[in-house]
């Protein structure tokens, strides 16, 4: 099993497509990522926050041996980025 931080960035559409509903996710929610081959991995949300649009620290690959997923989209006025951090629980 490989460790690191998979980062997915998506548009925040008002109609709810792509990451349009990402703002509704909360800590402790489950996130399922399904591969093109049908295998699924469950992640648990452990943090959610806003950053400046040029702040890329959330994409760091140093995860202390954890498997992480980072979801990023713009906030309502596109001046900040919403970051949702998830990890596979041990």
Structure summarized in a few sentences:
This protein is an all-beta fold.
What does this 3D model show about the protein?
There is one protein chain. The chain is mostly beta strands and 90 residues long. It has one domain (4-87): Sortase (Sortase, Chain: A, Beta Barrel), CATH 2.40.260. Helix content is 0%, strand content 44%. It contains no helices and 5 strands. It has strands spanning 4-9, 30-34, 40-52, 67-74, 80-87. Strands 1-4-5-3-2 form a 5-stranded mixed sheet, with no helix packed on it. The two termini are 13 Å apart. The model has no long low-confidence stretch (mean pLDDT 91).
Quick tags:
single chain; 90 residues; mainly beta; Sortase, Chain: A; 5-stranded mixed beta sheet; 5 strands
* Integer tally of domains: 1
Largest sheet: 5 strands, mixed
Q: What distance separates the N and C termini? A: 13 Å
Mean pLDDT: 91
- State the helix count: 0
Helix share bin = under 10%
At CATH's second level, what is the architecture? Beta Barrel
Order of helices and strands: EEEEE
Task: Give the structural class.
Answer: mainly beta
Full CATH superfamily name:
Sortase
Count of beta strands: 5
Summarize the helices and strands and which ones pair or pack.
Blueprint (H helix, E strand, L loop, with lengths): L3 E6 L20 E5 L5 E13 L14 E8 L5 E8 L3
Parallel strand pairs: 1-4
Antiparallel strand pairs: 2-3, 3-5, 4-5
């Amino acid at each position: 099993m490989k460790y690191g931080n998979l980062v997915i960035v998506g548009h925040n559409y008002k109609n709810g497509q792509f990451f349009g509903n990402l703002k509704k996710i909360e800590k402790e929610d489950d996130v399922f990522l399904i591969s093109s081959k049908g295998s699924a991995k469950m992640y648990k949300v452990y943090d959610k926050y806003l950053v400046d649009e040029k702040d890329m620290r959330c994409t760091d690959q140093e995860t202390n041996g954890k498997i992480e997923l980072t979801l990023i989209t713009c906030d309502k006025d596109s001046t900040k980025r919403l970051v949702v951090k998830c990890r596979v629980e041990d």
